[in-house]
Design brief:
Radius of gyration: 17 Å
Strand order of the largest sheet: 2-3-4-1-7-11-8-9-10
Largest sheet: 9 strands, mixed
Bound molecules: adenine
Oligomer: single chain
Strand content: 25-35%
Number of strands: 11
Structural class: alpha/beta
Shape: globular
Distance between the termini: 10 Å
């Protein structure tokens, strides 16, 4: 593993990790796109990049469109061996999920693309992209639960979203994962998901309030998990030399 690329939507999700590794911003790298690049290099030569979606109208760009643009621009310019989509998500009390718990993704799909028609259209709409084959080993060795990421364009959850999530075994609800995986599938780049829970979609709480209250704790949990994951990946690349 010589070149690792994190794709992260929000600055708040990435900042604790950026600070922990002392990663420097490469200003203007993606101009005129809004995406932001932070890069560093380890002693063994492995490069670590963190790409953020950037901002519009004074707020961080979230959602599939911004994630697709950032992922495409970053893979084309940086040629990573592995993309890691790290971010926060909703999860389910009924699955015994907890706030600030970290999961590794074992699958990824869209939950709000309802396209009638034959199997081909339905299959395309749901996505169901592959995750990196090393994902399970990371979860087992570092002790994280695994779950299927499902992605939609809204923070709230409509009954039809829940139906698709439940019918397809979804456990981690986000707004970018499947878009990042879609671009990775087009460019033959493996993807690992590291997700931390800010809110429980089935506990009756108001989602945005719960998300805002827990964003900092969940982002610190992402920092801790990603430090461990990077150490693990660096050892892997050492042992492959
Ligand atoms: N990110 C964090 N919580 C989320 C939720 N409930 N839905 C979509 N994206 C999220």
């Amino acid at each position: 593993m010589q070149n690792i690329l994190y794709v992260v939507a929000m600055q708040a999700e990435a900042q604790p990790f950026i600070d922990a590794f002392g990663i420097e911003e490469q200003e203007g790298f993606f101009a005129p796109l809004p995406c932001r690049l932070y890069s560093t290099e380890f002693e063994n030569g492995t490069k670590l990049h963190v790409v953020l979606n950037g901002q519009q109208h004074g707020s961080d760009l979230v959602g599939c469109e911004a994630a697709s643009v950032a992922t495409l621009a970053a893979i084309e310019r940086l040629h990573p061996d592995l993309v890691i989509n790290s971010g926060t998500c909703g999860a389910f009390e009924s699955n015994d999920a907890h706030i600030a718990e970290v999961y590794i993704g074992n699958g990824v799909m869209f939950h709000d693309r309802r396209v009638p028609g034959d199997d081909e259209w339905g299959t395309q709409a749901l996505g169901n992209y592959n995750v990196w084959e090393g994902s399970e080993a990371i979860a087992l060795e570092l002790g994280y639960r695994m779950g299927k990421v499902t992605t939609g364009s809204s923070l709230d959850m409509q009954p039809c979203d829940l139906q698709i999530i439940k019918d397809n075994g979804g456990e981690l609800k986000d707004m970018e994962g499947a878009a990042v995986a879609f671009v990775c599938s087009l460019l033959n780049t493996p993807i690992l998901f590291v997700k931390s829970v800010t809110d429980l979609c089935d506990n009756g709480a108001e989602t945005f309030e719960e998300f805002s209250k827990n964003l900092s704790a969940a982002s610190q949990a992402l920092r801790d998990a990603n430090k461990r994951i990077i150490c693990h990946l660096l050892h892997l690349s050492e042992s492959n030399r």
